[in-house]
Structure formats: structure tokens, C-alpha cells
Automatic annotation (TrEMBL):
Gene Ontology biological process terms from the UniProt entry: acetyl-CoA biosynthetic process
GO molecular function: acetate-CoA ligase activity
Protein name: AMP-binding enzyme C-terminal domain-containing protein
A Pfam cross-reference name: AMP-binding_C
Domain AMP-binding enzyme C-terminal: 1-75
InterPro entries: AMP-bd_C, AMP-bd_C_sf
SUPFAM superfamilies given in the database record: Acetyl-CoA synthetase-like
Taxon lineage: Eukaryota, Metazoa, Ecdysozoa, Arthropoda, Chelicerata
Segment forming the signal sequence: none
Length: 114
């Protein structure tokens, strides 16, 4: 539902621990050219997920990134995003990652010192 939004080129959703809910939804989005993640756009993306899938699918956090961590064959490495949302710097084997430079950006926007 989120990638159907006109502003979103790519997206990946992962869970993160939440003190009350147990788990929360964090979405990393790559925006199309000409868009930036404003509060209004964030609410619009959340509303779209809620309307298309339901209230349980509404993301708690949306983070705009320049790219998603992918393998050399183009698959999104969700385990990396899961580790990032848990503030875990121990990413394990990243040898299959196509572009490791994306990690610095992910650490920075998540407030993690690499």
C-alpha cells in the first residue's frame, strides 16, 4: 500500500520493540524525486496504509532514506533494517550487500554511532 503512494519509490517495513504494544511498525522509504518527508506527507502515507490495509498496518515510524540495503541480486536486506530499528550495530555478514555505504546513512538517521 505504501509503495502505491505517488511520493514513494521503494519501501520496506520491519518491526521494532515497543514498550506498550510489544512491537511497532517502522517503514523505510525511498522517495521519488521532488519529494521530501514532511509531517504532512508522513501523515498521508500513514493514512494510505491505514485505509488500504487497516489500522493495525499503520506505521508508527517512517524514515526517508536515499536507498535500501539490498543484496547484489536486488533483494532488500530486512534483517539489516531490523537490527537498525533495534539499535544493534552487530549486523552480521554484509558481504552480499550491493552498497555498504547506505549503512552510514541508516546509522545516522537512527541515532546509532557506528
Amino acid at each position: 500500500a505504501i509503495v502505491e503512494h505517488r511520493a514513494v519509490a521503494e519501501a520496506a517495513a520491519v518491526s521494532a520493540p515497543h514498550a506498550i504494544k510489544g512491537e511497532s511498525i517502522h517503514v523505510f522509504v525511498v522517495l521519488n524525486n521532488g519529494y521530501e518527508l514532511t509531517a504532512e506527507l508522513e501523515m498521508d502515507i500513514k493514512r494510505r496504509a491505514r485505509d488500504k490495509i487497516g489500522a493495525l498496518a499503520e506505521p508508527d515510524v517512517i524514515r526517508a532514506v536515499s536507498g535500501l540495503p539490498k543484496t547484489k541480486s536486488g533483494k532488500v536486506m530486512r534483517r539489516i533494517l531490523n537490527k537498525i530499528t533495534r539499535h544493534d550495530c552487530e549486523l552480521g555478514d554484509t558481504s552480499t550487500m550491493a552498497d555498504e555505504t547506505i549503512l552510514d546513512e541508516l546509522f545516522t538517521i537512527s541515532g546509532i554511532k557506528s
